[in-house]
């Protein structure tokens, strides 16, 4: 179970409508939403991985402390939700190093995992892995092997693999149908489709592939009362707002129907060097 800890105004879909210069003037909602998620996870007795922005750590340090104190895994989502594909190696190093340092200073413990905003690792920037390795990360979960208009590396592996840098990459789960990969990892797909279909796809994946399944979503997805960004493109607004009011109920069904743990625990044999 993974959570990309960012606020509604951080998302890439709204980057042309809300600039980072405006973030400080917006009342954050990520803190209260993440605390609510932790309450749900704790009540259901599961552990999750929280890929957290450095921006969130700076503005909501209580969230960082609670993630760690309650036994969940803390991981990095970069500093300011800048896609890795639009940064130079120097900019990426600075962004991720700052995030990792801020998270570790608050948590009082080292972190192992990283997820690029908008799954922005592909064939154009594999140098990212060398930088992550140099910064002492153990794994990344930053690729989605599907065809998508905003991201995707459909030709890359569907299951966890060791990059030549030494880093473990854990792709977002997909089903392979007639030679094409179908996204089943969460996010907008999970909100859009009926729960029975998502459940059936996850069950099929587990039965066919015998691989760990990981689910991702964001704290803003359980917040149907969040402010609306009116001047964003229609497609962006549809993807962001579709079925927000149903998300928490579907999430709770998902938690009940499967066994969940953190990335660190699920991939422990890989991270400890055993094949």
Q: How would you describe this protein?
A:
With 275 residues, the protein is of the alpha/beta class. The chain has one domain (2-271): Glycoside hydrolase/deacetylase (TIM Barrel, Alpha-Beta Barrel), CATH 3.20.20. Helices cover 39% and strands 11% of the residues. It has helices spanning 30-44, 54-59, 61-69, 89-107, 127-134, 187-192, 195-209, 234-241, 244-257, 263-266, 268-271; strands spanning 2-5, 49-52, 73-76, 113-114, 139-140, 161-162, 168-169, 174-177, 180-183, 216-217. The strands form three sheets. The chain has a four-stranded parallel beta sheet. Strand 6 (161-162) and strand 7 form a beta hairpin. Helix 1 packs parallel to helix 3 and helix 4 runs parallel beside helix 5. It is globular, with a radius of gyration of 17 Å. The two termini are 22 Å apart. The model has no long low-confidence stretch (mean pLDDT 94).
């Amino acid at each position: 179970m993974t959570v990309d800890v960012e606020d509604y105004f951080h998302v890439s879909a709204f980057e042309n409508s809300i600039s980072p210069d405006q973030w400080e003037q917006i009342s954050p909602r990520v803190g209260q939403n993440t605390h609510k998620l932790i309450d749900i996870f704790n009540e259901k007795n599961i552990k999750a991985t929280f890929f957290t922005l450095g921006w969130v750590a700076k503005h909501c340090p209580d969230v960082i402390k609670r993630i760690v104190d309650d036994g969940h895994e803390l991981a990095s989502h970069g500093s300011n939700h800048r896609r890795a594909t639009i940064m130079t190696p120097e900019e990426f190093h600075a962004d991720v190093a700052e995030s990792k340092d801020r998270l570790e200073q608050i948590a009082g413990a080292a972190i192992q995992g990283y997820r690029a905003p908008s799954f922005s690792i592909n064939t154009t920037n594999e140098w990212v892995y060398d930088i992550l390795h140099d910064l002492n990360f153990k794994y990344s979960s930053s690729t989605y092997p599907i065809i998508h208009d905003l991201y995707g590396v459909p030709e890359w592996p569907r299951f966890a693999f060791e990059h030549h840098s030494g880093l473990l990459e854990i792709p977002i789960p997909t089903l392979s149908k007639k030679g094409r990969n179908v996204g089943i990892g969460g996010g907008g797909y999970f909100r859009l489709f009926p729960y029975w279909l998502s459940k059936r796809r996850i069950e099929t994946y587990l039965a066919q592939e015998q691989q760990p399944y990981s689910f991702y979503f964001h704290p803003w997805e359980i917040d149907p009362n969040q402010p609306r960004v009116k001047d964003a493109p229609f497609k962006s607004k549809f993807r962001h707002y579709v079925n927000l009011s149903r998300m928490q109920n579907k999430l709770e069904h998902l938690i009940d129907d499967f066994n969940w743990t953190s990335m660190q625990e699920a991939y422990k044999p890989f991270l400890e060097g055993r094949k």
